[in-house]
Amino acid sequence: MDVTPPAEVVERRINARQAYRSDLKPVWCPGCGDYSVLTALFAALAELQIPPHQIALISGIGCSSRLPGYAATYGLNTIHGRPIPVATGLKSARPDLTVIAMAGDGDALSIGGGHFPHAARRNIGMAYFVMDNNVYGLTKGQTSPTTPTGEQTATSLYGWPEDPANPLGLALAYGVSFVAQGVAGDVKGLARLMVEAIQWPGFAFIEILSPCVTWRGKEQYDVIRDRARPIPPEHDVTDLAAAFRYAHDPEHLYVGVHYRQRKPTFQERVTALQQKAAAKGAGNFDRYLAKFRA
User: Is the pLDDT assigned to residue 124 strictly greater than 90?
Assistant: First the structure.
């Protein structure tokens, strides 16, 4: 059976993806995994058919944080480590928008690491894509929170003595309601994960393994290819203990959804409180305010 889509369908898909591209040309290094991440994002948005004016991309500082400039959506390039609080404020004020925060491993887990658990416990309705290359690429190859032990970098000439942070393990420990891992080399698979994350009613996190060929060499692609495995199809995505085991496997990098558990979102809880206050009457709330101010 021929499953090739008709030419007009292909053309519509191409045009849809083009609708999300800005006039800026990406300036990442040749071979950077972020090119594939950008392509996967456009594919996901085209699949979801979300109008560009209903999307906001929020980033911090770093190579990956250039991404909003290459998309014809609303976007904001914030300061280092601050995409989550800015995206949280935007989603709280405009729950109708599709909000996607993005960062690199240094941006997300160093100066921005303190914002991660609070977005998780609030279960803000947004997606958070972290492009992990295990190094500070934009500032010339220093160690990052996910740099492997023993790695030689611009700031660890004789090897790095610390254990690397585990983004998936942190997300699971913080209680993120949707946790997944993707690889830049698998554009179609990454796009599918992005579709799930963007549609998820709550805070969705994807760690994206996106190699830096400039500071970690082409060998990083080889390492990911050798270690990456699809998460077993029998894995129960509601099994937190099993998700922890896959996230902390010392030999393999499991690609796919590690954990997914529906729970009330921040907006749903706020709405419930508003309804509760309305049921008790505005007069009671006014009296409470008067007492508080006194």
Answer: yes
- Residues 147-176: pLDDT tens digits? 999 888 888 889 889 999 999 999 999 999
Query: What is the span of the domain harbouring residue 27?
Result: 7-263
Instruction: Give residue for tokens 């995505």.
Output: 237
Query: At residue 118, does pLDDT exceed 50?
Result: yes
The CA distance from 26 to 66, in Å, is 8
Could you tell me if 154 and 294 lie in one domain?
no
Those residues whose C-beta lies under 8 Å from the C-beta of residue 259, and which sit 6 or more positions away, are 172, 176, 177, 178, 179, 237, 238, 239, 240, 243
d(CA 211, CA 208) in angstroms, rounded, equals 9
Cα 135 from Cα 63, distance rounded (Å): 11
Tell me, yes or no, whether 140 lies in a domain.
Answer: yes
**What residue has token string 């740099």?**
147
Which tokens go with 163?
Answer: 């254990």
